[in-house]
Write a structure and sequence with these properties.
Helix content: 40-55%
Structural class: mainly alpha
Radius of gyration: 15 Å
Order of helices and strands: HEEHHHH
Number of strands: 2
Strand content: 5-15%
Distance between the termini: 44 Å
């Protein structure tokens, strides 16, 4: 696996944003993308999360990634990967250093896969409640 892309400037910008899950204004840079053993994902796959939504809460990212992703979709009707793509686009529009296109393409590809997973999960949930 190639070494993840690092950008202190991007991480700093992410920490200026409100929590993407609950809207609190005390954000940490939560790395959400693919990673190697004992290695964080690329900085360009990070989202802003408050400490509760990132590490401490019942639905926190580090309490269980699948659970977090489902809760995120349930609240926002959007995937984490969709958010990553929007964050990268905003970063670019604001005139910051342009992110390598591979990061955006990877996030967009993951957004499609994640959306398929959520739709499949929701259809399973619907069939379980209807029985």
């Amino acid at each position: 696996m190639p070494k993840p892309l690092r950008s202190p400037a991007y991480r700093s910008w992410i920490r200026t944003l409100a929590c993407a899950f609950c809207g609190a204004w005390s954000s940490e840079c939560a790395h959400t993308g693919p990673h190697g053993l004992a290695q964080k994902a690329s900085d360009f796959n990070a989202i802003p999360l408050c400490p509760v939504c990132h590490r401490l809460g019942r639905d926190a990212y580090h309490a269980g990634v699948r659970r977090f992703r489902r809760a995120f979709f349930g609240r926002h009707r959007s995937t984490v990967e969709d958010l990553i793509v929007r964050l990268l686009e905003c970063y670019r529009v604001l005139g910051y250093e342009v992110v390598p296109d591979e990061a955006i393409l990877y996030a967009a590809e993951r957004a499609l896969l994640a959306a398929e997973d959520v739709v499949e999960w929701e259809s399973c949930q619907g069939s379980m409640t209807n029985s």
